[in-house]
From TrEMBL:
Keywords: Membrane, Signal, Transmembrane, Transmembrane helix. Pfam families: His_Phos_2. Belongs to the histidine acid phosphatase family. One of its GO terms (molecular function) is phosphatase activity. PANTHER family: ACID PHOSPHATASE-RELATED, PHOSPHOGLYCERATE MUTASE-LIKE PROTEIN. Residues 1-18 form the signal peptide. CDD domains: HP_HAP_like. This is Phosphoglycerate mutase-like protein. The chain crosses the membrane at residues 425-450.
Length: 476
């Protein structure tokens, strides 16, 4: 009887697990091990190549061949419409993305193609699969820049990050750590000037020593680098970079996290749209980016409230994943949005089958997964999804943003607090033009009346040459 009950319970559990279907996923991934920022240009190392390749193998086993396989995705031969891979124009990040893809979709073996003239051609590199890595405008040159916002063109975000250098927190750490950083000068003075070894350059100093600890068997004055010193060095670098990446009272500082949120929403929305339309596309989005985006996103989604480790710089090859899934029956087609759920997973460092990612609740909640509607609503509160939104958020008015500059404070794009809509820009412009014309005509009439002037026909005037005044060019 007990055995039968146990079997029944196992059967129920198995059926419950089998009912879950992963419909899509989006991954944000950090690059692998690299050379130090202070010796630019940075390059992906052999160790870094192996780290992201291993991560690609893990996600292959999870989403392409395992129990969490994305419904309908090709296992062995890539179908490019199902996959979207992006990275900034950056040597380390783009190469990391390609290494990851080699693990995700390994070579399929040699194939032979016979041409019309009878000649045969064999696939090179044992059937290596060519998968494009699309570039994104944000974060270009991330790994050659020592300062978080140097890779950003967002004006207000740079101003916000600079404000950290005038904060009480920063100045307290700058003064209280002088002796600590002075003790590290003999370790790094072959690369950094003594005046630069301080909390202002906390991450640069940490990065240089961290790379040396990984790759150099002998480091100058290495006896200084005790475990306690290395821990303090890392902790200070974490505080420095989190301070530059996120501020609760000045959210534009987290612009990279806002953009990531917008990209996640757009991609998973396309997964839902294509699934509803019966298409087999847009199933797996993968983006490589810098650690600053992780920190910004962690702050925006309140992950730091659940675990203070989220205020620290993620290790090389760290990744976070967003899984779109359902427990509804999918035999009849793609489920409705009310049946969709999302869970967030994170792993610090290289993920593998022996060290898998962990689920964490988003937005300060307690549940490991939330409904798609709640997830979408939560991200939408701060997500930046369009160029126009980005321009307005960043206060940029030149270049690409020039087209939106005149609308930066335009109430026609918003609703008032009572819920009523403002007049459209076109109607407002017409009304404004008539008001201006009435003012001009009124002023002219008064001027003529008081000055004794009158209107006369052009024919009554003697002809003469009149110089044409130049008009000022419009400024973008």
């Amino acid at each position: 009887m007990k055995a039968a009950a146990a079997l029944s319970a196992l059967s129920i559990l198995a059926s419950a697990e089998a009912a879950e279907t992963v419909l899509g996923a989006y991954i944000f991934h950090r690059h692998g091990d690299r050379t130090p920022k202070s010796l630019a240009p940075t390059n992906l190392t052999t160790l870094g190549y192996e780290q992201v390749y291993t991560s690609g193998q893990y996600y292959r086993s999870r989403y392409l061949t395992g129990s969490s396989k994305i419904r309908g995705i090709n296992e062995d031969t890539v179908k490019l419409t199902q996959l979207a891979v992006t990275a900034p124009v950056d040597n380390v990040l783009q190469n990391s993305a390609m290494a990851f893809l080699q693990g995700l979709y390994p070579p399929v073996g040699q194939t032979v193609q016979t041409l019309a003239n009878g000649n045969s051609v064999q696939s090179p590199m044992d059937g290596y699969q060519l998968i494009p890595v699309n570039t994104i405008s944000t974060g270009s040159g991330s790994e050659d820049n020592g300062w978080l916002q140097d890779a950003s063109t967002c004006g207000d975000a740079k101003i916000s990050s600079n404000n950290y250098f005038t904060s009480a927190e920063y100045n307290n750490l700058l003064s209280s750590t002088e002796d600590f950083y002075a003790s590290l000068v003999p370790v790094v003075n072959g690369t950094l000037n003594e005046k630069d070894v301080n909390y202002k350059n906390a991450y640069i100093v940490y990065d240089l020593i961290n790379v040396a600890e990984i790759h150099n068997s002998s480091i100058p004055d290495s006896e200084v680098l005790t475990n306690s010193t290395l821990f303090q060095l890392r902790t200070l670098a974490d505080a420095h970079e989190y301070g530059l990446a996120y501020n609760a009272s000045d959210d534009v500082r987290a612009i990279s996290g806002m953009q990531l949120a917008g990209e996640i929403l757009k991609y998973l929305n396309s997964t839902i749209t294509s699934g509803t339309a019966g298409s087999s596309s847009n199933k797996f989005g993968i983006q490589f980016g810098a650690y600053g985006t992780f920190l910004s996103f962690f702050g925006l989604t309140n992950l730091t409230a659940k675990n203070t480790n989220f205020t620290g710089v993620p290790d090389y090859a760290s990744s976070m994943a967003f899984e779109l899934f359902t427990n509804a029956d999918v035999s009849g087609g793609f489920p409705s949005t009310s049946d969709l759920q999302v869970r967030f997973l994170f792993h610090n460092g290289t993920v593998s089958n022996s060290s898998e990612p962990t689920m964490y609740p988003l937005f300060g909640g307690n549940a490991d997964s939330i409904s798609w509607n709640d997830f979408s609503s939560g991200l939408s509160k701060f997500a930046v999804s369009t160029t126009e939104e980005w321009c307005h958020k960043c206060g940029n008015t030149t270049g690409t943003c020039a087209a939106y500059a005149s609308n930066s404070n335009n109430p026609s794009t918003e609703q008032n607090s009572s819920g009523g809509s403002h007049m459209s820009a076109a109607i407002g412009g017409v009304i404004g033009a008539f008001v201006t014309l009435a003012v001009v005509l009124g002023s002219l009439a008064a001027f003529m009346l008081l000055g004794g002037f009158r209107l006369v026909s052009k024919k009554a005037l003697a002809p003469r040459d009149t110089p044409v005044s130049e008009t000022a060019a419009n400024k973008a």
